[in-house]
């Protein structure tokens, strides 16, 4: 029996891994989506917000506990001022428009990243959305805005030496916002690039990686379902041996 047949057998006998608890997404490809249609980049970002709404609904349905979305990196300030300004307005509008639906769906929203460089109206919208959804016991939605994985690690280490990885992870959560820094199970990047671009570096130490060529505005619940079922077919070893090799 060859290897792939025996793997299929074990899948058919129901030996599938559970669904990922924490899914993180690098939502890339808005600009290229727009360019392919002869539209301004901001039109891609607007359509990207629609894809966010779909992904949040789908994640809750799939039983994912935490969904972390990379919306704006610390390095994205390098973009032309009008694109940056447009994105910041879009985030504010998204938060205001979506909060009632998030509350209804019992989603708890947190925003990760630096706040001090955000315009005051966006900062207020972030606080209002976090306050309104604080009681949500369903999906924990974390949106990373002005976030840098390396700066988050630096910020956590500035709080003094940590005695353990778990202790450091708690600090990291405090330093970067968005609550405790739980490990990422499944990391998805759309847009066809194969890199982390300074996202959740510590938290992704053993994340399963999925790179999808679909541009973010075209990302549908089916893409998320495919990534989740692919995840459930993988064997995570965390440095140990595979079940087959160990037996
Ligand atoms: C991701 O899409 C959104 C942000 C980084 C804000 P991009 O804007 O990076 O889209 P591409 O990669 O240029 O297509
Ligand atoms: C990563 O995408 C950041 C977000 C999706 C918010 P970028 O488009 O900024 O990444 P690079 O520049 O291609 O690495
Ligand atoms: Mg990009």
Automatic annotation (TrEMBL):
It holds the Pfam family Prenyltransf. One of its GO terms (cellular component) is cytosol. GO terms for molecular function: ditrans,polycis-undecaprenyl-diphosphate synthase [(2E,6E)-farnesyl-diphosphate specific] activity; magnesium ion binding. Coiled coil: none annotated. One of its GO terms (biological process) is polyprenol biosynthetic process. HAMAP family: ISPT. Homodimer. Belongs to the UPP synthase family. This is Isoprenyl transferase. It comes from Eiseniibacteriota bacterium.
């Amino acid at each position: 029996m060859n290897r792939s047949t025996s793997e299929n057998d074990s899948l058919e006998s129901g030996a599938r891994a559970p669904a990922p608890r924490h899914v993180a997404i690098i939502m890339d490809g808005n600009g290229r989506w727009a360019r392919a249609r002869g539209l301004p980049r901001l039109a891609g970002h607007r359509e990207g917000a629609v894809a966010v709404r779909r992904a949040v609904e789908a994640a809750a349905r799939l039983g994912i506990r935490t969904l972390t979305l990379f919306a704006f990196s610390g390095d994205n300030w390098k973009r032309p001022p009008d694109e940056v300004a447009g994105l910041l307005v879009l985030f504010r509008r998204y938060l205001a428009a979506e909060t009632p639906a998030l509350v209804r769906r019992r989603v708890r929203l947190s925003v990760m990243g630096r706040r001090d460089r955000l315009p005051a109206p966006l900062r207020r919208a972030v606080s209002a959305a976090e306050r309104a959804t604080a009681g949500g016991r369903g999906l924990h939605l974390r949106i990373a805005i002005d976030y840098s994985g390396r700066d988050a690690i630096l910020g956590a280490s500035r709080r003094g030496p940590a005695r353990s990885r778990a202790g450091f992870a708690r600090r990291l959560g405090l330093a970067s916002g968005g609550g405790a820094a739980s490990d990422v199970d499944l990391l998805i990047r759309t847009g066809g690039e194969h890199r982390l671009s300074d996202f959740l570096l510590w938290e992704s130490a053993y994340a399963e990686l999925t790179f999808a060529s679909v541009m973010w505005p075209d990302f549908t619940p089916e893409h998320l379902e495919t990534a989740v079922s692919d995840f459930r077919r993988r064997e995570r070893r965390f440095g140990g041996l595979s079940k087959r090799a160990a037996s």
